[in-house]
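User: Can you predict the 3D structure for this chain?
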Amino acid sequence: MAQDVDTTRRGLLFGAAAIGTGALLTACTSNEPSGKSGGKAQQAAVTDEKPGKRVTIGFAGPQADHGWLNAITVNAKERAKKYADVTLEATEGSNDTAAQIGQVETLINKKVDVLVILPADGKALTQVGLKAMRSGIPVVNLDRVFNTPQAYRCWIGGDNYGMGLSAGHYIGEKLKGKKNAKVVELAGLDTLELTQQRTKGFDDALKNYPNIKKVARQAAEFTVESGQSKMSQLLQAQRNFDALWNHDDDQGVGALRAVKQAGRDGFLMVGGAGALSAFQEIKKGDGVLKATVLYPPTMAASAIDLARALGQGKGIGGMAEFEIPSSITLYSAVVDKDNVDRYMPTGFQ
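Assistant: Here is the predicted structure, written as C-alpha cells:
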C-alpha cells in the first residue's frame, strides 16, 4: 500500500495531476448540475493562515556570507514561524556543493513533506533535486535554477534582466532632457550569468534614450572592498558622468565610500537588491544614491508559502487554479524617495 501511495505522489509531481482533475472539479463546483459549468472557474481550495494539515519543510541554502543571502535564511525562518502547522528543518548553509548535496539527501532521508532549495550551484544540485522529486517530495527551487524543470515542482526567483531594465529606464527618464548624457556601470562578477543578464537589461533599456551613452564599465565582486576599489578606478578614469548603475547594494557601500573619498557628486546613482543601508541613504536624500532596484530576499518567505501550499495540496489565493504555478518571476521594482518608506521594513542588513 505504501508503495502505491509513493507511486501516486510521483505521478502527481511529474504531471499526471490531470488524471484527478475531474474529481477535483466535481468536488469544488457550485450548485450547478454536474457537467454544466460551461468551463467557468470554480472556487479552488487555497491556503490561508488558519492551521491545517501539518507540513514539514526542509530548507537548504548557501552560506550566508552576503547580506542578501543572510536575508534569504532569515525570511524563510521567520515565515515558517508564522504558521502553527509548519515545521522547518533548516540545514547549515554551505557554498560547498558536495556538502549541500549531502544536506539535501539527509532531508530526503528524513522524509520531509516538501523541500525548499536555493542551490549554491544550480547545475551541480540538479541531480539531488531530481532525486527528491522521484522520491515523491516536491521541490521549490529558489532563485538559482536547476538545469531541468523536472528537478523542481515550482521555481521562484528574481529577474536579473528586469533589474537592469528597470535601472536603465529610471536613469533614462531622469536624463532624457540632457544632451550627450554619460553613464557608467559597476557590475558584479562577470563570470556569473546573472551579472551578464543585468548588464543586458540595462543596455537594452538605454537603447530607448539616444541622448545617453554608456562610457565605462567595471566588474566588482559583490563585496564592500571590491565595490570601493573598482569605483575608485571608475572615478579616476571618468572625470565627468551623469549616472551610475551599481548592480549590488553590498558592493554599493564600498562604492559610496569611494565617491565620498574622491569628493565627487553631480551624478545620480542607482543600486541593486534592496539593502537597508541603501534605503536609509535614499531617504536621507543628501547623497548621490537616489534609487535602488529590488531583487527581493522576501522570495524566501514566498517559497515557504508555496511549500506549505504544496504540502497541504492546495492552491494559492488570488488564482483560480487548483495548483500553484510552476514558475514565478518576481518584479524588479524601483525604490526611490517617493516610496522608500513602504519598502523600509523589507531592507536587509
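The first helix runs from residue 2 to 13. The chain is about 40% helix and 15% strand.
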